[in-house]
Amino acid sequence: MTSVFLEDLDAETYSAIVAEEGSTVIIPTGATEQHGPHMPLGVDAMLSKAIAGVVAEKTGAVVAPVFAYGYKSQPRSGGGNHRVGTTSLGAAALTGMVDDVVSSFLSQGFAHVVILNGHFENYQFIYEGLDNAVSRARVSSTSSRAVLLSYWDFVDEATLEQVFPNGFLGWDIEHGGVLETSLMLLLHPEKVDMSRVVDHPPAKLTPYDIFPEDPARTPASGCLSSAKGASAERGQLLLDAVTTQVAAALDGELSLEKITLEVS
Amino acid sequence: MTSVFLEDLDAETYSAIVAEEGSTVIIPTGATEQHGPHMPLGVDAMLSKAIAGVVAEKTGAVVAPVFAYGYKSQPRSGGGNHRVGTTSLGAAALTGMVDDVVSSFLSQGFAHVVILNGHFENYQFIYEGLDNAVSRARVSSTSSRAVLLSYWDFVDEATLEQVFPNGFLGWDIEHGGVLETSLMLLLHPEKVDMSRVVDHPPAKLTPYDIFPEDPARTPASGCLSSAKGASAERGQLLLDAVTTQVAAALDGELSLEKITLEVS
Amino acid sequence: MTSVFLEDLDAETYSAIVAEEGSTVIIPTGATEQHGPHMPLGVDAMLSKAIAGVVAEKTGAVVAPVFAYGYKSQPRSGGGNHRVGTTSLGAAALTGMVDDVVSSFLSQGFAHVVILNGHFENYQFIYEGLDNAVSRARVSSTSSRAVLLSYWDFVDEATLEQVFPNGFLGWDIEHGGVLETSLMLLLHPEKVDMSRVVDHPPAKLTPYDIFPEDPARTPASGCLSSAKGASAERGQLLLDAVTTQVAAALDGELSLEKITLEVS
Amino acid sequence: MTSVFLEDLDAETYSAIVAEEGSTVIIPTGATEQHGPHMPLGVDAMLSKAIAGVVAEKTGAVVAPVFAYGYKSQPRSGGGNHRVGTTSLGAAALTGMVDDVVSSFLSQGFAHVVILNGHFENYQFIYEGLDNAVSRARVSSTSSRAVLLSYWDFVDEATLEQVFPNGFLGWDIEHGGVLETSLMLLLHPEKVDMSRVVDHPPAKLTPYDIFPEDPARTPASGCLSSAKGASAERGQLLLDAVTTQVAAALDGELSLEKITLEVS
Amino acid sequence: MTSVFLEDLDAETYSAIVAEEGSTVIIPTGATEQHGPHMPLGVDAMLSKAIAGVVAEKTGAVVAPVFAYGYKSQPRSGGGNHRVGTTSLGAAALTGMVDDVVSSFLSQGFAHVVILNGHFENYQFIYEGLDNAVSRARVSSTSSRAVLLSYWDFVDEATLEQVFPNGFLGWDIEHGGVLETSLMLLLHPEKVDMSRVVDHPPAKLTPYDIFPEDPARTPASGCLSSAKGASAERGQLLLDAVTTQVAAALDGELSLEKITLEVS
Amino acid sequence: MTSVFLEDLDAETYSAIVAEEGSTVIIPTGATEQHGPHMPLGVDAMLSKAIAGVVAEKTGAVVAPVFAYGYKSQPRSGGGNHRVGTTSLGAAALTGMVDDVVSSFLSQGFAHVVILNGHFENYQFIYEGLDNAVSRARVSSTSSRAVLLSYWDFVDEATLEQVFPNGFLGWDIEHGGVLETSLMLLLHPEKVDMSRVVDHPPAKLTPYDIFPEDPARTPASGCLSSAKGASAERGQLLLDAVTTQVAAALDGELSLEKITLEVS
Lengths: 264, 264, 264, 264, 264, 264
Description:
Radius of gyration of chain A: 18 Å
Oligomer: homohexamer
CATH superfamily of chain A: Creatininase
Number of strands of chain A: 5
Number of helices of chain A: 8
CATH topology of chain A: Rossmann fold
Structural class of chain A: alpha/beta
Distance between the termini of chain A: 29 Å
CATH architecture of chain A: 3-Layer(aba) Sandwich
Strand order of the largest sheet of chain A: 2-1-3-4
Largest sheet of chain A: 4 strands, parallel
Order of helices and strands of chain A: HEHEHHEHEHHEH
Helix content of chain A: 25-40%
């Protein structure tokens, strides 16, 4: 019963891990959200869980059950919350979940909590829950520390150039695009149907939000750019770049001992 | 890309399902909780997800991503929230999650929401969230309906006698016992290690709770009864009994058309 | 001005009680809920207050003002929240009240708080409020302790056999039945009209809840079983059994000194 | 089983009352708070309940179970929340209770809800809960109406001169003084011990609050003025003045038909 | 860059102030509320800010950004929340703002926080937020202290006689009346148009509130009394009285060293 | 008494504006946050208020009182919440404020609400409050609409090149830099002291957040880039670009009639 995923660990094995010096748990967070006709609704949760798994192996951490639901999708980063299939949490529920789960891990004895986010709109609400949980925990245990990150922020320039040879247009329009599709082709190829990719130009997004949302403002495909250039090879480049850099960052901040950096 | 699990469906397939008359989504709810030395922390989520999957196939429903975290474990039904590995939500976060997710499914167009609970302590907090969400939804759509159930409440007397030939002592002490272990042996045998089962007498539980909890009041194994009698065969008996009866109940209450009852 | 009910005590007498070693306050919790045509809406509050009073005399505790409103009545235990007369609190208000009142008693100096519940649906929400209040209080005073119980869980088998000579069918259908009516006949006989008892078979309850509720699923009387067998004598048997056992439990857990157990 | 107190009514009688045109329920609100050495902690709840009962008889209303706990006592009106015996709710719990209970009464069918307050510090928090509940209720039922009042605001000048022949110094220092003590001597004489009245000059209150409170700023008696001048006769004058004026106000605002004004 | 208003201070200057012994920040609180045809919507915020500024100069304190929005205006003190122009917060938002801002100032190092209120209906909700913030802060820093006041409570009898030569009728009807108008004529004369004052008798207010509000119950002008007697001279009398007395009170409670009392 | 700032308008003038077809209110949101040694703590509120004023003049809107406090400052966009002078709201208070104020404006009769944000970290929490308020408002008034924007997102490429002739490095490091300082030099020159600008290289920010924050990771100046290149001329370029583009966007989305675009 060995695994980096704690839902697969028995209580005794888990207890031993928590008791180690510098013990670290990574919480992957995703969403239930439409990702166009070629990918399933669970993309964000699947990717953050898989990436967390690789990082955990590199760093000696364990991975908590993924947050399968995320904050309301927004047109400028995910197409919008009005699309069928997108099933979201409000701010209070998401922030409360983060606070409760992080508080529980810190009180059980973990020295560090890392939240690895895979859904753009989650970030600020996770920040609030994590800030509240760590502030409270440190009243009695000043060694408690936490890190919050979104995985795509760790893709370096060199990798970007390889994955987007025609130029990278920004993370905001990557919803259902080359990044996510390439990673899915690598990690869950049976859940991607490239024949259904809609090859349209990148969405032209307004620099503001309107309420209520206007469905005509984003592409009918539900994606903000075309996934046509996606491939498992590019997925591997992205996965290697992200996990190596995240592991290095955690090692640097948290002085984790088991990290062995292997730049691909 | 066909599946009863909506996280595996693309947005177009999903949209077609939601638009069907009488469309039904089942939300499985579990917990992250120690289940002794012979089973992993994710038992409650794994079982409610698997059972929901079978019910969905019988009834033509789809299954939402499982709620992997549940309400605080209590000594009289789960061993207690103080045990390492048990990672829980408070009332507000759990109730808020249920409210948000159910509201979203109803507003997307589902006619019915079913919550299939797999962690005893969740029930009342799900009730609150579900009651609030349905009450609000029905202001504008009086056809919205919902059902809440815990799966073990559907095991009939005949099955109980087969599974517990020496007498059934009550669901309260089944945490980590024959019921859950048999189902896991059937559904996830690679995650159970029967050689680590601690064979102790059923826990003698007080008819009250104390705060703070006293760890000495429940067995050191983390289980409330011995799983020694568990087997995949008994798991099959339980699974058949539960899913047949749940499907029949949903058919009766919601007039679902695709149900084909097959009493095992 | 001597009384076990603190609302009847002057501030000086009360202050002296709080300052005693091991000082204990019992908070009775009930509901405002229909109890059929033969009993008043205030049954749950009246009974929990009266039982708390007897327990307080046996143990040297004082009794706080009863919580007269409770959580939403449910069909499987109280007939349902849709019935006229049933006036309920949501989860947040009930949990918040428990937290505030318990926190206040602990900060005033009580060593122990006991919540004696008289309305089935309250239990989990009280648990949440009590858990939160005690956890916070123990940051500064590790001697603070609390107990939570529902009074009917203390009726022993021998008493059950005497009170239900034809067999006991479960607490869930006792709403407005023999237990509550017998206790009311003993404690508030002028508020019971046995000529109005509706003598129908026990309610057949589904093992699940539906939203919105279907009024046709529970008996029109508002009771879940017949109170025909109720009597003041049976009320006395129940009261003695409950109060003796509760007092013994509190003595055991809290080491109260003034308990004199007198098994009836 | 006839009574103006709904906790004493059976469900059938109650249902008939609710269904009447212009049906009105009065919710008395009090507190659990020290009232000096000569009166019990429950004064505010006892008085608001008794006054509501008389008003109900004059107007044909029924009285809901009293809110026995109130908002934090403040030095300028009640001596302060730091005094032993004073057991208070925070804003969220009190406001939530009001909202839930009022919403329930309106949805059951009452045309009017009246809240009759007996604890100064409650007023604004009740206002918030009542405003929220009525605003929501009126979306579907525009005939729903509510009234909020504190009973002492209905004592007329002529009565004040009779009750305070040496001059009335303001309601703010009446905590534990002549008003409350006279009403208690009339309504619950066995709960008052006039021999324990501390005869001190009226408290000199600062026109501001400090945090944390300074216990030395209010009289050690816990009262803000002397109750020496209290008598049951004065209690009768006050009760008559209040109930007559409140009944007249409700009649005027709500067009209640059963009011028979009898100025004492 | 010297100012008593901290929004005008650079971070270095501000840091030095916070680090001083006995450092004090005054938070002025107002509202956005109609004040009749002769004064602007921002009166309450403008006056509390200006008064706080004078008090800060007398006492060596700094002034935080004013709370420009306040609690729901009520007919008996502000005309009512139903009037166009009145833009209010509910209880939770106002209380939360106070709690967060006060907690932040105390954690930055201020020894004292003073809230100077300029909108009647705010008081109790500020009390709740301030009580919660100070209680929490004192767990780690027992020197933290706070004061809450409404500025009009500091006008002495002699000043009242000068400002209201025909007799003072009570603060409750001063909304848009002589007090506020005189202070505005002194502090922001360009924002007052005395030619538009509606000279009507004082509003006759009921001693209770009704829900929903009846617009006919308060004067159509939006003011509760006539501002005809207002003048800048009277504004000066009021300002001097208030600021001198507030400064003296703060000096007395908080032992501020820089106060130089100059009774006008 | 004419002004675009509604706090300066009398109730009658304001009422007439609200009643106009397509009436629009702009709510500027800022923060109280350190902005280095050369600018005051109120920069964000001052700038969003001033920009909103210009936009209001271009579009015929009015401007609501600025939100002077914002969400917790973060190192990657504002230096961090741990810096003295930074005084922040948590998520619940900020979201609640937005919800309450927007709901009030819509219920008073405004057709459109625009929130013009001036503090990076506010955006998602405003989104939540605005989404909730508009969703609720549209149940009864389907014409209600809202827009949310941060002003810097409207600076076009041509302007960027003029303002940052050596290359623009990203909005994230503009805290206390050329953008904000140039605008302050234009709008509030007396509140800027260019002699105190610390000329350091742009901050190198990590692509993640840590808890608790490490003060050593951002420049000691409190700014994330040097303001040396700031000038009032550049401020004018920025102001013109922003206000012209924002006005055009509002015109396009809301069909405002009074807009006269004048590209500077």
